[in-house]
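Handoff note, outgoing to incoming analyst
You'll be picking up this chain. Sequence as last confirmed:
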Amino acid sequence: MQKAHHPELGEIALTEVMAALSDPIRVGLVRVLADGHERGWGQLRAPVAKSTLSHHLRVLRDAGLTRTRQEGTRCYVTLRRDDLQARFPGLLQVVLSAMEIDDVGSQVGLREGDS
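Most recent structure output, in case you need it:
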């Protein structure tokens, strides 16, 4: 795997962030990662094929919502909460609250034993 590109803080565009959050699977991934813990890709449970999950994680990374770290053959992902707060103060909290109220992305979670 080649080194993943992560947009610098000033490169994170609101339109890209909002576009990335337009899919319920990606919303669910953000909800799972909002607890602040780094998660291995294998810990994530979603009702899609592994290749589709990988695509969704790449969309979130390319938009600047997440950071991916590779360690050997494993990949780990975290939510860029501090960067998003610095770039768009309050946005992530408002979006997370709305997601919870509307129960968007609830089909995404962690595999059993990985909470």
